[in-house]
């Protein structure tokens, strides 16, 4: 008798390993790293006919332990094998009232069970409800599985999207803040102050001492008019000095002293750095000749080349973040001032001028910089986090959270992207909740369900 039982156990093991259509049904609970037999009236009944290794395809006629010290699991008569090719009639779920048709393998293997069970990895088989067969697009997950997979969802809302456009640029001077020092008369430079290229000068700081015959004659006429008390001629004499380039402070000094100076001290017209100095002591200066060039660096330009495809998204007034390569961790903020009205025919780019403050003169002329312009409109659009989009190339899908653990894939059309969000032009509406994490798992679950439903329908038609 004992030998017959051993033969029976061996035959059953070979059948199970050959995969000849038999499905072993067992349940095992893992507690503290040890496998223990779980007995439920609705799972199995009858005497234990053999024992199996919980970690492998080994069997025994009597209780024993495997090499890892785990107890072999008893297999009862009603749990042994099943010969059904189709799932049994639907059974009700006592907790929700929904009727369960069968249980399927959680890893997507073509294996079903009429009763709850676990796979070889200890994962619960997934119930397939009767009402789910009517809606192949809906996937239902238990609360425990949602927590394990980290499913998260967010509502679709209207928000302002800013699309960052990145380009390379260089720092340039603002010509409106550049002053050229030259004479309006033929003169001679008697001496030059202690200033050179690169030095910073303040407005009104002496630059050089100048003598000019025309300037001296105009100053003498102005003094004579003042001494004669001919008020009608004073304004004309003063205007001649102004036209020769004399500043108000120097004219007021002549009026107070009533003396004609031999040389005139020429002052800096504005504050800034001297980027060019041609004046030399004793030189003759022709009218209009550039003697000094002074640039105010408190505000600079950044000229960026924007690709042609992004030109329509750029408009004056948009915020731009500048990161000079000399200061990668120090962003500078500016505004788009002008989009130049022509393209570079060779590079197919449009030039954009950005104006920004230059605290401490940190940005130097011709520095290279990385430019990021916050483009996009000011109107709010329907948007969802980019993590919710499953982009398959030709189509984009989101997973709708319909509540109570039910999820539905929905194809959508997307527009602009920016700030981690994507504009939704069609497919879902405001207030719909979309899955933002673990959505790929749910999408795979949906595809698997559709495939199983197709197989089920094919089997029913036979």
UniProtKB/TrEMBL annotation:
InterPro entries xrefs: 3HB_CusB, Beta-barrel_RND_2, BSH_CusB, CzcB_C, MFP_Cation_Efflux, RND_pump_MFP
PANTHER family membership: CATION EFFLUX SYSTEM PROTEIN CUSB
Region annotation (Disordered) ranges: 79-117
Family statement: Belongs to the membrane fusion protein (MFP) (TC 8.A.1) family.
GO biological process: copper ion export; plasma membrane copper ion transport
UniProt name for this protein: Cation efflux system protein
Cellular component per GO, a single term: outer membrane-bounded periplasmic space
């Amino acid at each position: 008798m004992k030998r017959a039982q051993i033969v029976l156990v061996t035959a059953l093991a070979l059948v199970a390993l050959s995969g000849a259509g038999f499905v072993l049904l067992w349940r095992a609970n893992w507690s503290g790293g040890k496998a223990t037999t779980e007995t439920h009236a609705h799972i199995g009944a009858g005497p234990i006919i053999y024992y199996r290794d919980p970690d492998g395809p080994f069997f025994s006629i009597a209780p024993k332990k495997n090499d890892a010290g785990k107890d072999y699991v008893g297999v009862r008569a009603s749990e042994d094998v099943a010969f059904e090719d189709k799932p049994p009639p639907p059974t009700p779920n006592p907790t929700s009232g929904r009727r369960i048709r069968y249980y399927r393998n959680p890893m997507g293997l073509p294996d079903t069970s009429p009763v709850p069970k676990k796979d070889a990895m200890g994962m619960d088989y997934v119930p397939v409800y009767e009402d789910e067969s009517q809606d192949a697009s809906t996937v239902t997950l238990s609360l425990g599985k949602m927590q394990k997979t980290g499913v998260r969802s967010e509502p679709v809302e209207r928000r302002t999207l800013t699309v960052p456009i990145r380009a390379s640029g260089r720092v340039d001077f603002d010509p409106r803040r550049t002053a050229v020092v030259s004479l309006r008369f033929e003169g001679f430079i008697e001496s030059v102050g202690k200033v050179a290229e690169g030095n910073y000068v303040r407005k009104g700081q002496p630059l050089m001492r100048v003598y000019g015959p025309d300037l001296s004659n105009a100053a003498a006429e102005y003094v004579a008019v003042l001494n004669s008390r001919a008020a009608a001629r004073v304004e004309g004499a003063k205007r001649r000095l102004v036209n020769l380039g004399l500043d108000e402070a120097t004219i007021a000094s002549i009026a107070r002293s009533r003396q004609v100076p031999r040389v005139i001290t020429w002052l800096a017209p504005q504050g800034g750095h001297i980027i060019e100095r041609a004046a030399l002591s004793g030189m003759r200066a022709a009218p209009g000749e550039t003697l000094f060039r002074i640039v105010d660096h408190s505000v600079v330009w950044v000229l960026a080349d924007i690709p042609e495809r992004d030109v329509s998204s750029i408009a004056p007034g948009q915020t731009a973040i500048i990161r000079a390569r000399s200061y990668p961790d120090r962003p500078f903020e500016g505004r788009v001032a002008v989009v130049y009205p022509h393209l570079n025919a060779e590079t197919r780019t449009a030039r954009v001028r950005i104006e920004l403050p230059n605290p401490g003169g940190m940005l130097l002329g011709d520095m290279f910089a990385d430019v990021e312009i916050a483009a996009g409109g000011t109107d709010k659009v329907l948007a969802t986090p980019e993590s919710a989009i499953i982009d398959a190339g030709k189509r984009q899908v989101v997973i709708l959270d319909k509540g109570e653990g039910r999820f539905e894939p929905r194809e959508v059309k997307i527009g602009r992207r920016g700030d981690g969000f994507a504009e939704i032009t069609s497919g879902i509406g405001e207030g719909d909740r979309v899955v933002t994490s673990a959505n790929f798992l749910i999408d795979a679950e949906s595809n698997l369900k559709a495939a199983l439903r197709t197989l089920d329908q094919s089997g029913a038609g036979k």
